[in-house]
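About this split. The held-out portion is used to measure sequence recovery: a designer receives only the structure tokens and must propose an amino acid at every position. Recovery is the fraction of positions where the proposal matches the reference. Here is one held-out target exactly as it appears in the evaluation file.
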């Protein structure tokens, strides 16, 4: 399933960082924590007005969260912090990511092949395809692939990402 569930550690980081990052008029888009080996914390941020993040914004966030991390006695010393924009081909792993991508091109990898009777030949029996994200509901997305509109449940999506090169 595409929807990401944050680990307990990731949730602790999110709650510790959110207020300071929001004070900069920025938002946390995603977060990845790899505690094994040389531990790495990747923090993806966006400016809600531009839907991306500049290098200056990343530097500001780094300067805010580094002291917070230093105060967390459960964090292994020497952890690497990476702060960046999620990129233009960003992963869609939360419902709000899909909401932000409504009306835009996306790339999908499904758990199983498309089996709709009415599906065009270019889509039938495919697991990987591009489409325009029409809408997002609580448990599914509505996509448009070459004027064929259909629903895909979140549980059927293996991977999804923004694809600005695709349009209907």
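Reference sequence for scoring:
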């Amino acid at each position: 399933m595409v929807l990401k569930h944050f680990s307990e550690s990731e949730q602790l980081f999110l709650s510790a960082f959110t207020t300071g990052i929001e004070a900069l008029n920025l938002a946390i888009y995603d977060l990845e924590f790899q505690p094994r080996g040389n531990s790495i914390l990747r923090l993806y941020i966006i400016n809600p007005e531009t839907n991306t993040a500049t290098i200056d914004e990343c530097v500001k966030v780094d300067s805010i969260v580094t002291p917070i991390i230093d105060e967390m006695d459960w964090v292994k010393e020497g952890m690497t912090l990476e702060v960046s924009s999620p990129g233009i081909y960003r992963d869609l792993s939360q419902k709000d990511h899909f909401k932000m991508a409504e009306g835009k091109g996306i790339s999908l990898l499904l758990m199983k092949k498309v089996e709709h009777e009415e599906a065009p030949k270019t889509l039938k029996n495919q697991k990987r395809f591009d489409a325009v994200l029409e809408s997002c509901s609580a448990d599914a997305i509505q996509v448009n692939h070459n004027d064929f509109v259909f629903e895909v449940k979140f549980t059927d999506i293996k991977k999804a990402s923004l694809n600005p090169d695709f349009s209907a």
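Annotator remark: The chain has a mean pLDDT of 93.
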